[in-house]
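Hi all, long-time lurker, first post. I run a small reading group and we've been trying to get comfortable going from sequence to structure in the token notation. Rather than ask abstract questions, I figured I'd post a concrete chain and ask someone more experienced to write out its structure so we can walk through it together at our next meeting. Sequence below, copied exactly:
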Amino acid sequence: MPRILCALILFAVVAAVPAATGVAQPADNAARARKFIAEHEARIRPLEKQVNLTWWNANVSGKDQDFKAKEEAQNRLDETLAGQERFAELKEIKESNLRDRLLARQIDVLYLMYLEKQVEPALLRKITARANAIEQAFNVFRAKVNDKEMTDSEVRKVLKESRDSAQRKAVWEASKAVGGLVEKDLKELVGLRNQAARKLGFRDYHVMQLYLNEQTQDQVLALFDQLDELTREPFQRAKSEIDARLAQHCGVAVDELRPWHYHDPFFQEPPAVFGTDLDAVYARVDILKLSKDYYAGMGLPIDDVIARSDLYEKPGKSPHAFCTDIDREGDVRVLANIVPNEYWMGTMLHELGHSVYSSKNIPRRVPYVLRTEAHILTTEGVAMMFERAAKSADWLQKMGVIVPDPKGFNEAGSKMLRNQLLIFSRWCQVMLRFEKELYANPDQDLNKLWWELVEKYQSVKRPDLRNAPDYASKIHIVVSPAYYHNYMMGQLFASQVHHAIARQVLKTSSRKALYARHTGVGEFMKRRVFAPGRTLTWNALTKFATGEELNPKAFAEDFRGQ
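-- Answer (accepted) --
Happy to help. Here is the structure in token form:
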């Protein structure tokens, strides 16, 4: 075993046990740090739990009173974190160069958490109120065509199945109408976020958010430039094949294809155009049971998560999907809107992947402050890694599902997975670069900027004569700002971890590696990915789990090998 990897393993084991400091240091600094952390937990834990509960309730119900309670809970937490005297003390402790690495890591994480709130409480309240109002508008919005409201699943069904370009266009445009409803509020929210960032000494909010997540714009852009170069030609080849099939399906010329000819509103998912209909198999599958059996078979049972979750469509409820850890004590839940198709099979595997990388499996001995994922990109990576199984007939058969045409399913699923990796990488280029420019210059023509980036990175032609805030119809820009690039970095993490599991646990090639009914996969994930919590930074965890820092090599093998 390489010496560096041995050292990382030793550090992770030590870091997971708070009592094992091992290094002498000035007693007063260490004592101050421990006292600050204890006081933080006593004051903040109940407030964080309340924020998470009210956020859950609001997204499940869509009711005004629940969104009001969510906003009030967030304001109470923000006001507590905004205390200047507490922050000054925290800054002093941070600058005292604590030698105990576990103690220092907690202080570093708390510093980033408190720093964001060091602006006037009135400004924080304005930001929360504006974001809350926009999020509620998204949750209650339903596309309307000919006076008929459509759920998100119904929109996707039309975009997947209809051969009528006029119908597709009408549904696509209806799905984008939420952008016009929230545009004004979103621009005001961007201004408020920038105002807060500049008060804290950052150029703009995007720069600040990356700093708070232990990243830099230069670091992320360099990686995305590398990905652009790596994926550009393979993407164009894959898209040419997709476009030919979409054009044939809709009876139009390839150069007449527009955004509504793709199978989702943003062309972030691969269109299902490769013969075998994956949805036909999933129409007969109990998606929830299959998900439970899959995770249980890896030694990562999720029955308790399912019992607390809200999984089917209803009025007012958020039409999307997410997982949340309410208290870092095991109360983990998933919100979903399950429909029996491949999209929702993948989505459930994804969200339940988040659920197992949570306080369910991060040991209680990890301090509360660090009892969460190492980074948002690592939890997204875990979710994406498990999600990929949905496109494999071999996986379905190993799980006991009858697949009438396994060869056809595998061929179609393999192409879809390859295309998913390529298409998603290009879509993430749009989101990263748009949000960077949005906060750098929010007064520019954002409608024009959006379509310039879509055309450059996704090769999707903008609609003729359209001038609408289509960017504002993407909810992540509101509720998860400067976040989306982490999905792509998560794909890199997913590929690296998958290759490590194939080598070390399953003893096979990455293409043949299946996790179904193999408890060794769960053990690997618990020991090498989940156990450290946030004691390690995202790059240190990547190296601990895979032997290398985050890079695109394994990802490139995955999309080239399909």
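A couple of things your group might point at:
The CA atoms of residues 396 and 402 lie 7 Å apart.
The first helix runs from residue 3 to 15.
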